[in-house]
Amino acid sequence: MNILLIEDNRTLAKSLERVLKQEGHTVEYAWNGTDGLHLWRTRADHLDLVISDVMLPYLDGLSLCKTIREENIQTPVLFLSALGETHQRVEGLRSGGDDYLIKPFSMDELLARVDALLRRPRARVPDLLALGTDITLSLENNSVTLAGKEVLLTPMEFRILAYLAQHKNMTCTRGQLLENCFEHSKDQWSNSLEVHIKNLRRKLFSKQHACSLQTVRGIGYKMATE
Amino acid sequence: MNILLIEDNRTLAKSLERVLKQEGHTVEYAWNGTDGLHLWRTRADHLDLVISDVMLPYLDGLSLCKTIREENIQTPVLFLSALGETHQRVEGLRSGGDDYLIKPFSMDELLARVDALLRRPRARVPDLLALGTDITLSLENNSVTLAGKEVLLTPMEFRILAYLAQHKNMTCTRGQLLENCFEHSKDQWSNSLEVHIKNLRRKLFSKQHACSLQTVRGIGYKMATE
DNA sequence: CGCAATTCTGAAGATTTCCTGAAGAATAGG
DNA sequence: CCTATTCTTCAGGAAATCTTCAGAATTGCG
């Protein structure tokens, strides 16, 4: 696992690095907030965990984490801090942190908490999604191609398709779709969804594919691929 | 979000429940280890978080959590305990816990930690139920496969099958089935149930299997596996 | 064996859910 | 302010599903 360590105390950093490497992790290191931010941003795809001090030169850990979270980067974060007051710990978690460890701590506890954070499955969203053999969908530029040719979708249609594609072969309830793609609340009814589904079918699934947009009666819809 | 609270101190439990509900969560409650285990197992699909005391009557929190993890259920767990020694906290995390909060704690911190645990993407456990050797049923996809091939069930059929599968090798009374799968009240009669059972048998149990849908005369039905 | 209670089965009617086309409402861009 | 695009609503009809019913089959028991 890849861990980014942001800590200005070089001595502590060294020993943390040693211990983590012993556990089989690879460790990258930044000694201040701005360097940390840069590394985190650029390497986010490869990182499995960030361990960050709260008090750092140039940019403190909490602001750093807030910034990152606003960029929709979800790498788990373990904060280290000598500030152990409840309100300080709460603030750490509210800033987007996943755990908060008070200095001084034992290496055993650190490793246990690191394990707990690494154990949970990551939700890494790939950029290009393939549906069957000839439908491709790029989340980044909001575009869809069918057999190599671009198909124009309305924003709403794209949101719905993207949601279904990200959950392909799972049944998505009408509630999920309404909540995630519309501003509606979960349990509200709107025929609108069905109209968009119809249009998606017309634009993308009119012919036989290795992929189809199925309705699951009484529940919702499912993007089925082979 | 759905939270299961396992705590034997009724006073503490009550106030936790109140605070969590204020935050918009729904709370289920168990006051001892064995009840907790049962609730957790059976409702795992709907639970988003478990908050559990460590010292509990009948079955302590750590063993409880280990058992659940061995069953491949990944619901996040927050342990509460008065035992705040490092080695005890480490043990909690090693047992499959995700966080460990030491009593007494402030409600603020509890809520922050609950938020942190709920915020992270859910473990997508393919909640697959196996019946015999060749029937598999996925609650998430609302789908059933027989010898690898998908079998299409109606919503009602699926609900009934799922209920029986989740209680396999137990006799389910007609009352249970009516109450859980239909909108009927417990003691109402409806031939409808039998019709659905018939259709399930036709679709899934027509051949000899390691699994059969038996009728228990005068009581109800049983999903029997070997 | 014969009877009564219970369950099974097929088909038809009732109900729910979904699809579709078109028209009205909202929104953005010029 | 006008236009083009997109979104939502509505209503009719189609399709899938659920329930009911009546007769047949099965089971348990004296």
Give the uncertain stretches of chain A in residue-range form.
Answer: none
CATH class of the largest domain in chain A: Alpha Beta
Determine the fraction of residues in helical runs of chain A and give it as a percent range. 25-40%
Number of separate strands of chain A: 12
Distance between the termini of chain A: 32 Å
Number of domain units of chain A: 2
The CATH architecture of the largest domain in chain A can be named as 3-Layer(aba) Sandwich
Instruction: Give the largest interface pair and sizes.
Output: A-B, 31 and 29 residues
Q: Tell me which oligomeric state these chains represent.
A: homodimer
User: How many H/I helices of chain A?
Assistant: 8
The CATH superfamily of the largest domain in chain A is Response regulator
- Estimate the global geometry of chain A from the Cα principal axes: elongated
User: Mean pLDDT score of chain A, rounded?
Assistant: 85
List keywords for this structure.
homodimer; alpha/beta; Rossmann fold; Arc Repressor Mutant, subunit A; 2 domains; 12 strands; DNA-binding
Question: Could you explain the architecture of this structure?
Answer:
The structure is a homodimer of 226-residue chains. Chain A has 226 residues and is of the alpha/beta class. The first copy, chain A, has two domains: 2-119, Rossmann fold (3-Layer(aba) Sandwich), CATH 3.40.50; 128-225, Orthogonal Bundle (Arc Repressor Mutant, subunit A). Chain A is 39% helix and 24% strand. Chain A has eight helices and twelve strands. Chain A has helices spanning 10-22, 33-43, 61-70, 86-94, 107-119, 155-166, 174-181, 192-204, and strands at 2-6, 26-30, 49-53, 77-81, 99-102, 128-131, 135-138, 143-146, 149-151, 171-173, 211-216, 220-225. In chain A, the strands form three sheets. Chain A has a five-stranded parallel beta sheet, with helices on both faces. In chain A, a hairpin with a 2-residue loop joins strand 8 (143-146) and strand 9 (149-151). In chain A, helix 2 (33-43) runs parallel beside helix 3 (61-70) and helix 6 (155-166) crosses helix 8 (192-204). The first copy, chain A, is elongated. Chain A starts with a strand and ends with a strand. Chain A binds chain B through residues 74, 76, 86-87, 89-90, 93-94, 97-99, 105-106, 108-109, 112-113, 115-116, 120-123, 169-171, 216-219, 222, and chain B through 74, 76, 86-87, 89-90, 93-94, 97-99, 105-106, 108-109, 112-113, 115-116, 120-121, 123-124, 140-143, 154-155. Chain A binds a DNA duplex (30 and 30 nucleotides) through helix 6 and helix 8.
